[in-house]
Write a structure and sequence with these properties.
With about 325 residues, this protein is α/β, with parallel strands linked by helices. It folds into two domains: about 200 residues, Isopropylmalate Dehydrogenase (3-Layer(aba) Sandwich); about 140 residues, Isopropylmalate Dehydrogenase (3-Layer(aba) Sandwich), CATH 3.40.718. Helix content is about 35%, strand content about 15%. It contains eleven helices and twelve strands. The chain has a twelve-stranded mixed sheet, sandwiched between helices. Strand 11 and strand 12 form a beta hairpin. It starts with a strand and ends in a 5-residue tail after the last helix.
Length: about 325
């Protein structure tokens, strides 16, 4: 193989639905020509789930180090990078041990990226509290990867054919959202959205809109003043720099209308994720803006309550794989 692009999937929580949706996805989706896909995890865990779900393991080449991922000696487009631990999988029972395993897979991917072995990364869902038992500072994939890859500013975009949503704040308790939104944060997220749409999605003149923090976007200060005090000045400053972003607008009116925007920026997690998941219906995924490598992930969690039961829908994982492949194989646009 020549000029290959290498993508990796980290297996996520061994007690969650990550291994299941990966196995189901690889039964339906194969890497296109000149793309090599490497699953990073414990082979024993995947063998366990294959037996439990009564499916065959993919015909992947098992390797034990990231140096093999770009090897021109192999023509295999599907690899499994085995981290070598033979832990017993217990579906639905996440522990500190499964958290440590999920973190090990993620660190292996970061190591491969640092060696120049990865062009894109897809991360299966983890259980945050399980990882926090061994790494108390862990907040989520996005923050962990940003720190590991020394990315100063990042943002979470959720992308589908129907809608793109970007979050101003991520995993922040609702009572702290208003205080977390600053003019600098607004400017950073709008710029990341604008740049991501142009360079990764090929939108020459992005149309972006920002939702208000409060009901009715504050209603001229009667329902809160964050719009007038924080959002509007930040948007005016961006417009002076040539970056156009409409708003702030009322989120309920925006999502209830047919207004055409390339991306909607939402103030907090559920303001954006509720409408997105209703629109995408397992055909969307998350994209991290601002990282030095393409990174996507399914738009769902580890779903411990259904792990190992064969009920997990692989649609979002398939979309994440498809989009990561497209973004990693497309030259950046300016």
């Amino acid at each position: 193989m020549s000029a290959i692009r290498v993508l990796a999937i980290t297996a996520g929580d061994p007690a969650g639905i990550g291994p299941e949706v990966i196995l189901k996805s690889l039964a339906r989706w194969r890497p296109p020509a000149r793309v090599r896909l490497a699953v990073i995890g414990d082979l024993a865990v995947f063998a366990f789930y294959a037996r439990r779900l009564k499916v065959a393991l993919p015909r992947w080449q098992v390797v034990h180090g990231s140096a093999s991922l770009r090897s021109k000696r192999s023509t295999n487009r599907l690899m499994f990078l085995d981290t070598g631990h033979r832990m017993a999988a217990q579906p639905g029972r996440s522990t500190a041990a499964t958290g440590a395993a999920a973190l090990r897979y993620l660190d292996s991917a970061v190591h491969a990226w640092r060696r120049g072995a990865l062009d894109g990364l897809v991360t299966a869902p983890v259980t945050k509290w399980a990882i926090a038992r061994v790494q108390p500072s862990f907040v989520g994939h996005t923050e962990y990867l940003a720190r590991a890859m020394r990315a100063r500013d990042v943002a979470m975009m959720f992308a589908s054919q129907q809608l793109r949503v970007v979050l101003l704040t991520r995993h922040v308790p609702l009572r702290r959202v208003a205080g977390a939104i600053t003019p600098a944060l607004v400017r950073s997220v709008v710029r990341l959205t604008w740049d991501g749409l142009r360079t990764q999605f090929g939108v020459a003149r992005p149309r972006v809109v920002l939702c208000g923090v409060n009901p009715h976007a504050g209603e001229q200060g009667r329902c809160g003043d964050e719009e007038r005090r924080v959002l509007e000045p930040a948007l005016r400053a961006l417009r002076r720099q040539g970056i156009r972003c409409d708003g702030p607008v009322a989120a309920d009116g925006l999502f209830g209308s047919r207004a055409a925007y390339d991306a909607v920026i939402c103030a907090y997690h559920d303001q954006g994720l509720g409408p997105f998941k209703l629109a995408a219906r397992d055909t969307g995924c998350q994209v991290t803006l601002g990282l030095p490598v393409v990174r996507t992930s399914p738009d769902h969690g580890s779903a411990l309550e259904i792990a190992g039961q064969g009920r997990a829908d692989p649609g979002s994982m398939i979309y994440a794989l498809t989009l990561a492949t497209r973004l990693a194989c497309s030259p950046p646009r300016r």
